Amino acid sequence: MAGRDIEALLDAMTLDEQVSLLAGADFWTTVAVPRLGIPAIKVSDGPNGARGGGSLVGGVKAASFPVGIALGASWNPALVEEIGGALAEEARSKGASVLLAPTVNIQRSAVNGRNFECYSEDPCLTARLAAAYITGLQKGGVGATVKHFAGNESEIQRTTMSSDIGERALREIYLPPFEAAVRTAGTLAVMSSYNRLNGTFTSEHKALLTDLLKEEWGFSGVVMSDWFGSHSTAATVNAGLDLEMPGPTRDRGDKLVEAVRSGEVTVETVRDAARRILRLIERVGGFDRPEIPAERAIDRPEHRALIRRAGAEAIVLLKNDGLLPLDLAGKSVAAIGPNAEAAQIMGGGSAQLNPHYAVSPADGLRPLMSDNQLRSAPGVAANRLMPLISGPFEVDVYGRPDLAGPVAEHQSHPLGEVMWFNEVAPGVRDADFSLRATTRFTPSETAEHVFGLVSIGPSRLMVDGRTVVDIRDGWTPGDNYFECGNREARGSIALDAGRTVDVVVEYRFVQAIALNLKAIRVGVAVPLGDRAFSDAMALARSSDIAIVYAGRSGEWDTEGNDLPGIALPGRQDELIAAVADANPNTVVVLQTGGPVAMPWLDKVRAVIEAWYPGQEAGNAIADVLTGAAEPGGRLPQTFPRRIEDTPVVTGDPRTYPGKDGHVTYGEGVFVGYRHYEKAGVAPLFPFGHGLSYTTFDWSAPTVDQPAFGGDGVVTVRVAVTNTGTRAGTEVVQLYVAPPPGRVSRPARELRAFAKLQLAPGETAEAVLTLDARAFSYFDEERHAFVAEKGRYRLVAAASALDPRGSVEVELTGEIVERVTARLGA
Ligand code: BGC
User: What's the rounded Cα separation, in Å, for the pair 588 and 89?
Assistant: First the structure.
C-alpha cells in the first residue's frame, strides 16, 4: 500500500517487535507482526527461475530460464529485462515477493563453481545486464536481491575465506555491477556474501555495507545475509546487515534486545534496519497480501517461447567453416556424446529448480527428422557422480541416532536424492535423528553395477541386504552439498537384468560446518566401456553428419565446489577427436558453464557453445544448428587455450585457491581480456567473439565532439549493414584505450556495447555513450576516480581482439570524482 506511514508503524512497535523483523521466520520468509498488520513476505532463489520454498530437488515445478553466463552471452539488455519481467511472474507463482538474484560476481577464474551463474568477466557487460534484469523484475512488482556482495569469486572454503582485494580492483572490476544495481536499477535488496573481504566477514563489514552501499551509493533497501552467513549479533547489526537469513534467528532475537540494553547496539540502528524491512514489504506490495499465496506451477506458453528465443540468442558460434547451418534434407545424423540424450539445462546448487520439462538436444532434432535419419550413442560418460537412481525413496525417520525405537515419521520422496533444510520430521532434533531409506531397483542389463553414495553424515548402502558402500566409519565432508557432503563413495555388485533388488540406505546426520542441510544421494550405473566408444564410432562412420554433444553438467558447474580444470570431463576429448577422424562433417555442441579447452579444435568443422539454456535447451540448440535462429551470442568470458594462461590459476596458491584462509587478488584490475592483452597470451577465443550466419559491413566510428570536459556524455556512432542474405545480429563493442599515464592501465576496456538485429541488406546504427567514468581509473592515493587529460582512442570492435575502426577524443582537463568509503586491503 503506497504511502503507508512507516515511521508511525515503527513508533507503534516495541523494541522486541522491531528486533523480530531483523531475522527470518524460517528458511524463506520474514517475520510477521500480526498485532500491527505487518505481514511476512517470502523470498525465493534465483536467478534462472523461481524455485519456491521446497528443497533444491523436487519441489513445485517452475520455468527454467538460461543461466547467468548465457544471459551474459546474449549481450542484450532488452532481452534480459524481458526475462526479468517473466521471472517476476514466476516468483509470484511461488508466492515470493523477492527473488534472490541476480548473481553479479565477476568471472575472475575459469574454474569458479558458480561461473555459470555469473554474467561475465567484464564489469561493464555485467553491470548493464544486471541493471536490466533488476529493472524487469522490479517492474513486475518483485524485489531483486543482487548478490553476493562482495568478493565471492570462488567456492573454495567460501564461508571462511578472506578475499584480499585492493581498492582499485574493487572499484574498477568487482563493485560496478553492484553500483549499477543500486544506482541505475534501484535494487530493493542486496545479499552479503559468505566470505570475508580483506579480513572481515562481509556481513560484518561496515565500510562495505554502510559507508559504501548505504551512504556513498544511497541504498535505501535491505541488506540480507547469505544463508547462515551471519555469525554475530552487534557486529552484523552495527555494520549494516539488516536481515539475518534464514530464520529462525540464531544471533538476534533476545540476544539483540540484550545488546541494545547493554548499549552495544543503539535503538536508532535497530529502528533503521526495521524501517528498511518495512519499506521492502511496502515496496513489493506486501501490506496488500496478509497471507503468503500458495505455490503453483504455471507452465506458460509465452515463457516457453521466450526461453527458446533467449537460448538461441545466447548460443555462441565459435567456429564454422560453412557446415552450419545444417541442411538436414535427406541426411543421416549421428547424435553422439553424453549430452545428446541428456538435457543439460542448468547449473547446480541453490540455482537449481524442478523444471516444467527439459528438452534434450536429440529431442530438439527429432521433430525435424524421420526416425531412421537420426540415431544417437553416448560413446562416453561425463558424469561426476553416478547417475541418480530413479527412486522413489520410502524413508523411516527415527528420533534416535541408532535407528532404534519407534519410527517417528514415514516419508515418501520421489527421487533418489533427498534433502532437508529444516528439521527432518516434527519434533525430531537434527542431533538425534537417523533414518532408513528404501527404494527398489530393476537392472536393465546383467552386469557389475556401481553404486555411489553421498550423504551429510555417516551412512551405508545395502543391496538385498548386502553392504555395498559403507561410510559409517571415517565419513568426512568433501566436494558435495556445499562442502558438507562426502566425496562420492562407490561400491559394486553383480546384478541380473530384470531381477528387482531392494536398495537401502541407513543414515545419521552430523552437524555440518555452515548449513543445516541434511541429505542423501544414491546413484547407480553400469559404467560405459570401450564397447560404447566403438558403437559411437560405428555410428559416426555410417552417418552423413556427426554432431558431438559434449560438455559438463550441473554436477560440475555447481555452487559449493570449484571445477578441477577446464578440460572436458572423462574421455570426451578422445571421443571428439575420434569422431572427427571417422566423419568429415563433425560439429561439436558444447554445454558448459564457462571456458573449456579444445585440443581437437582443428579437426572439427564447426563448434557452438550453448551453455545451460534452460528447459528449451534442445529446441534452442536445434534452432541454431539448422539456421531457424541466428547464433546470437558472443563470449562474455575469454576462452583460454590452457588453464595456466588464466590470470588466476597460475600455480601460486595465494592467488588461487587461497592459502591460510586468504586468497589474494594479486592480478589487480588485470582480469579476463585485460590480463591476456597485458601478458601477451593469445586466447583460444577472445572475449566478445562469436560468428554469425551472415556478413556485416561496419562504417568507421564517428564521435559527436572532438573534445570532452567531463560533463554529460560522448556519443559514438557506428553504422552496420547486413551484407548477406540471412537476417542476423551483430554486437558492436566499444573499447576505450587510454593514453600513457601515471599508472599501469589495461590497454583497452569495454565501456559500451549495442546489439543490432539486421534483416538482409538492412543498415542500422549503434549509438554508444561514454560518461566520465568510462575514461577513468581508480586512483588509490587520491581516493578518487580519475580520468587523466589526453587523447583517448575509442575502438569499435567485434571482439576484444577484432577491432573494426577507431576514433579519438581529447580530454581537455583531468576529471576527478572523489568517493568516500574506504575498502582497501
Ligand atoms: C547461496 C545463495 C542463495 C542461498 C539461498 C546460498 O547457499 O550462496 O546464492 O540465494 O543459498 O538458497
Answer: 35
Q: Give CA–CA dist 184/141, Å, rounded.
A: 17
Q: pLDDT digit string (tens) for 721-757?
A: 999 999 999 999 999 999 999 999 999 999 999 999 9
Q: What is the pLDDT of residues 268-307, one digit of tens each?
A: 999 999 999 999 999 999 999 999 999 999 999 999 999 9
Q: What is the CA(483)–ligand 1 centre distance, in A?
A: 14
Q: Going by DSSP bridges, is the β-strand pair 43-44/98-99 parallel, antiparallel, or unpaired?
A: parallel
* Segment 614-640 mean pLDDT: 98
Same domain, 582 and 479: no
Do 23 and 249 form a contact (C-beta atoms < 8 A)? yes
Query: Which amino acid is residue 633, in one-letter code?
Result: G
Per the structure, the complete domain to which residue 239 belongs is given by: 6-154+173-283
Q: How far apart are CA 736 and CA 734, in angstroms?
A: 7
- Could you tell me the three cell numbers for 646? 588464466
- My answer on whether 127 and 265 are in the same domain is yes
> What does the pLDDT look like over 571-614, one tens digit per residue?
999 999 999 999 999 999 999 999 999 999 999 999 999 999 99
Domain count, the chain: 4
Question: Which residues' Cβ are closer than 6 Å to ligand 1?
Answer: 45-46, 100, 147, 226-227, 350
Residue 684 lies in a domain: no
387 within some domain: no
Provide the CA 648 distance to its chain's centre, in angstroms: 19
Q: Which of 722, 349, 691, 262 is nearest to 554 (CA)?
A: 349
The pLDDT value recorded for residue 1 is 40
- 633, three cell numbers: 551470442
Q: What is the CATH number of the domain that holds 104?
A: 3.20.20.300
- The answer to whether 549 and 575 have CB atoms below 8 angstroms apart is no
Tell me, yes or no, whether 87 and 224 share the same domain. yes
The rounded Å distance from CA 233 to ligand 1 centre is 21
Q: 323 alpha carbon to ligand 1 midpoint, in Å?
A: 42
Q: Measured from the CA of 56, which atom of ligand 1 is nearest?
A: 12
Residue 691, domain member (yes or no): no
- For the chain, the farthest-separated pair of C-alpha atoms sits apart, in whole angstroms, at 84
Specify the residue with its C-alpha closest to ligand 1, atom 12: 350
Q: What is the pTM of this model?
A: 0.96
Residue 587: phi, psi to the nearest 5? Answer: -115, 140
Does the N-terminal peptide bond of residue 803 adopt cis geometry, omega within 30 degrees of 0? no
Ligand 1 pocket, mutate which of 223, 243, 350 (most atoms under 8 A from CB): 350
Give the span between the Cα atoms of 373 and 330, in whole angstroms.
Answer: 8
